[in-house]
Design a protein that fits this description.
The complex is a heterodimer of chains A (233) and B (512). Chain A is an alpha/beta fold. Chain A is built from six helices and eleven strands. By secondary structure, chain B is of the alpha+beta class. Classes of the chains: A alpha/beta (233), B alpha+beta (512).
Chain lengths: 233, 512
């Protein structure tokens, strides 16, 4: 059955280079596939190109060559406006440093992606409350980001990424700045949404212990894919 | 953007207005202050100018317009003077070339110089005496003789004021009287005498008696100024016009001050807007990352800064009204002028606000999320290049003969001013980036892309030319102008012929 599914996320010969005195390929000819409902974890040491790859997958940056397909649709030729609309529908992004809008409350931060995509206010607020409840932040829903701890902010960011029920959630070192207890809580969240809502996740981490939660482990080194391990669910 | 997302974006913008209130307050103060200063200062200039002009007095002249040509030049016969092609009735007296206004003992009169034996009333209307025979003969209308009790043989003096102001007297002897039913009551003298008087008078000068509505005088002056660009024009309102021109010169620096007001306001508003943009890069990146469209970002930024500008203009108007009640000259500003200044001020403010809103929004629109998030350069202009911008014949000949595709990068001292991503031997795909370059502080970005699938076979570090061998011989061929290649082929043929000729001549000389 698995083989008949089309990948929800796919890259074809993807390249990204930066100029650091000379051309440095942060992503070098990368070909990966992520199937629907999977938790894919990209691991590798610092500077191996994980974050760059995730940025490219989310349309936050542009490759110099290659293709990125989300639900079989290429995103590399889209302009910034089309990319924003694509992200609205298909991508939830969790940044390493949370990146919540500082003057909005937790509830408003989670509500915002739904409001700007045209969801009715009551419906958006109800789902935002539901998501905050899921991440255990109902009592803190009216606090602004600067009134929340790092772990709480990260959970708000996760709730926000799930707001529009995206095809795939991309998370850049979601546990990188968290203590072990909060880290476990966050990982548990991902697993829960994966199980209950069949949500696809692509996570980046340099913490190899998290790979035990993954259905697919992609190892990177110097911008290249070193290994892809697919695990039975 | 549907109604819900519109409302959501508006709410977000309103929250941002509160968050950035101090910045927006700065814009508000700049706009309100500049607007009020502009309107009040413009009004002050207008009132001052009006007061100045009101001090001038119109000249009381015996003519409507005097055109004074170059006094030092030879006299230009009146028949040769340039004349505007219209208004013949107005210019009648100037054109006849025989009519002179001089003073006489009767007061100011107009003499008509006529040709002996040619005037139509010579014999028909002469009622007493003789027609013009000598240079000093004068024939008067009979009613003038009656009025001043003149007789044949009496001396009749006319006076002319020369260009240096000296009054000259001309003596005439009354040789006859005439009467006519026509409306003609001019003293008649010989043409030569008339020319003499005219010559004595200021040269290249003539008068225009103007028989039309006074409101047309400015048009006449305008026309005559165009017809006689070097001449001095004297007319009753010349003092007012000169006064206005003088006041304009005096107030010109003041008008530059008006420009400066808006320039400083523009610089201030743009600086605040740009600094705010730099501080909000992360926020904009977050918004883009969660799917906020460019239209929503433009609307939100426009609403935030536009509202500061709009409120600023309204506050400026209120300031003008409040100060106007305390300023004595304010009420002297004509309401039409005041309305004009308000409109002008609003227009300039609008222009500044559009610039202030456009610059950050354009940057926000074209930037990727990571460019905003990591404060990277944001290229406003992106150019994809897959052919030569200025192909030379030699390169096109190589493209043609060796079936290559060339790209040319900007190189300095053998180094490309950007990133060279491919080297000789690398495979490339059609559209794949082979080099990039940022220019003008990163505002412009070039990407050189391969025109075909193939292999990089050559790279000249000195010229920056990269040659790609296409897999398909017909792939990626760019339609360069045909004449470049043809010219090169012709040039090469000529070169080859020259070489042959040189070799031949060399061999002949050797054999000798």
């Amino acid at each position: 059955m698995e083989n008949t599914k089309r990948p929800i996320l796919e890259t074809v010969n993807l390249n990204k280079a930066f100029y650091l005195g000379e051309a440095v390929y942060a992503v070098n000819n990368v070909n990966i596939q992520v199937m629907p409902g999977e938790i894919a974890i990209i691991v590798g040491p610092s500077g191996s190109g994980k974050s760059t790859l995730l940025s490219l997958l989310g349309g936050l940056d542009r490759p110099i060559s290659g293709d990125i397909l989300i639900n079989d649709k290429s995103i590399v030729k889209l302009n910034e406006d089309e990319l924003a609309l694509m992200r609205r529908k298909n991508i939830g992004y969790v940044f390493q440093f949370f990146n919540l809008i500082p003057h909005l409350s937790a509830l408003e931060n989670v509500e915002l992606p739904m409001s700007i995509s045209g969801m009715a206010r009551n419906e958006a607020r109800e789902r935002a409350r539901f998501l905050l409840d899921e991440v255990g932040l109902t009592p803190r829903s009216h606090h602004r980001p600067d009134q929340l701890s790092g772990g709480e902010q990260q959970r708000v960011a996760i709730a926000r990424s799930l707001a529009n029920k995206p095809a795939v959630v991309l998370a850049d070192e979601p546990t990188g700045n968290l203590d072990s207890k909060t880290r476990d809580m966050v990982i548990e969240l991902f697993c829960r949404f994966n199980e209950t809502e069949k949500q696809t996740f692509v996570l980046i981490t340099h913490d190899t212990s998290l790979t035990s939660y993954a259905h697919r482990v992609i190892s990177m080194m110097d911008g290249k894919i070193e290994d892809i391990e697919v695990r039975p669910r | 953007m549907n109604m819900i997302s519109f409302v959501a974006t508006t709410q977000l913008a309103l929250k941002n207005i509160w968050r950035w209130r101090w910045r927006l307050l700065t814009i508000f103060i700049l706009v309100a202050g500049s607007f009020a200063l502009f309107v009040l200062y413009s009004g002050m200039l207008t009132v001052s100018s009006q007061i100045g002009v009101a001090q001038t007095v119109e000249l009381n002249l015996p003519y409507d317009l005097m055109v004074m040509g170059d006094q030092n030049s030879p006299i230009i016969p009146e028949s040769q003077l340039p004349t505007p092609k219209f208004r013949r009735p107005i210019l009648k007296k100037a054109e006849t070339g025989s009519s002179i206004i001089v003073k006489s003992e009767t007061g100011q009169i107009e003499l008509l110089g006529i040709e002996e034996n040619s005037h139509f009333f010579k014999s028909d209307f002469l009622i007493e005496g003789n027609w013009l025979v000598d240079e000093d003969d004068i024939v008067l209308p009979s009613q003038m003789a009656d009025q001043f009790d003149l007789s044949l043989g009496d001396e009749f003096y006319v006076y002319n004021i020369l260009q240096d102001g000296v009054q000259v007297q001309y003596k005439f002897i009354i040789s006859g009287f005439y009467q006519t039913d026509y409306d003609l009551d001019l003293p008649l003298i010989k043409t030569e005498s008339a020319a003499l008087i005219r010559q004595d008078a200021a040269p290249n000068r003539f008068f225009i008696q103007y028989n039309r509505a006074e409101s047309e005088l400015p048009h006449l002056v305008e026309w005559m100024r165009a017809a006689y660009p070097d001449a001095v024009l004297i007319y009753p309102t010349v003092t007012t016009d000169m006064g206005t021109a003088l006041l304009q010169q005096i107030f010109q620096p003041g008008r530059w001050l008006l420009v400066l007001i808006f320039m400083f306001m523009g610089i201030g508003v743009l600086t605040v807007a740009f600094i705010t943009f730099l501080e909000r890069r992360r926020e904009l990146a977050i918004m883009k990352s969660i799917g906020v469209s460019n239209g929503q970002i433009v609307y939100a930024l426009g609403l935030e800064q536009g509202s500061a500008g709009l409120v600023g203009v309204i506050a400026g108007m209120i300031i003008v009204m409040l100060l106007g009640q305390r300023i004595s000259w304010f009420s002297a500003i004509p309401s039409s002028e005041l309305a004009k200044f308000v409109l002008q001020g609003s227009f300039y403010t609008l222009a500044v606000m559009i610039a202030a809103i456009s610059f950050p929004t354009i940057l926000a629109k074209v930037a990727t999320v990571n460019q905003l998030l990591f404060a990277r350069n944001i290229p406003i202009v992106r150019t994809d290049i897959d052919h030569l911008a200025k192909p030379t014949g030699w390169i096109l000949m190589r493209e043609d003969k060796e079936n290559l595709r060339f790209l040319k990068f900007d190189v300095v001292d053998g180094r490309i001013e950007g990133i060279l991503l491919k080297e000789v031997g690398d495979r490339v795909k059609e559209g794949e980036v082979v080099a990039t370059q940022e220019m003008y502080l990163g505002l412009r970005y070039h990407e050189w892309r391969s025109p075909c699938d193939g292999e990089v076979v050559e790279y000249n570090r000195d010229s920056g030319h990269m040659a790609i061998k296409p897999d398909d011989p017909e792939a990626g061929r760019y339609p360069y102008p045909a004449h470049i290649l043809q010219d090169e082929i012709r040039h090469q043929k000529n070169l080859e012929q020259g070489r042959r000729r040189a070799r031949l001549e060399n061999s002949v000389q050797t054999s000798k």
